[in-house]
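For reference, the entry.
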Amino acid sequence: MSGPDQIVDTEPYTPLSGYTLFATRRIAMDLIVGATGLVGSEVCLRLLKRGRSVRALVRTTSDPVKVAALRSAGADTILGDLKDPASLVAACRGVDTIISTASSTLSRQQGDSIESVDHLGQLNLIQAAKDAAVQRFIFVSFRVPTGLRFPLGDAKISVEQALATLNYTILRASWFMEVWLSPALGFDYTNATATVYGEGTNPISWVSYVDVAEMCVVASKHSAAERKAFDFGGPAAVTPLDVITKFQQISGKTFTVQHVPREALQQQFDSATDPMQKSFAALMLGYANGDSTEMAVIQQQFGIKLTSVDDYARRVLAAA
């Protein structure tokens, strides 16, 4: 692969004098910020499979196995950090499109916080994009629960507002099934136990991270996605209790279900002083309240095939 500063190819042309010369043409470059994360790594792979030139922003503290996998797949990597504006200037040089999936929520390292990464860090990236005259900016946000103010939600809203002067696409993802329907958050399908936040009777448009990644890739080259924000969920809204029923039917196991009462979630939210704890408490309340979004128009317009809860259940149960 070529170096990060300038990537060119050559093509012959014949001027009026009749001599054949060679003109340089810059190859379109995509910068992925959050490239070693859940969504970002999938974005990189999907871009590369389409023959796109990918520059992956990585940190000195990034998982070396993940960095090696990106390089092996064909991505160029460049060192940088959202907290270091100077590094972003170099990363954005020669870039046509930025896809930012970075967040401090799942892979926090020393010095990372909602304020330093999800807020100020993303604003640093936007400024670098403006200075470099980047043509497109794709930002993965999330659906902020109605009526709740919390640090992560405020950060996402602030970043979305700052993108208004760029040619942006914002994807407000619903609850990731690979996160919220996983053992890490109490949905232990291997041992047939599930923690449900609230009553579990309000439907949620559970979404797969692979579908969010695919939409990032499609939107980056689709004129209908320019200067628009999309609520993005799965193909159908399903209640947490119905999710458990689906897993029981597919696995043949009866789940033991534990509920965290809404009152306990509200108390946790009200008493939390740490920004990350406050934000997770808000997201659990959002889960309890439900989150339903209609996806038929987006599926038809952009040709996205969405992963259902049944698809997800069969996949993870088969691998368990």
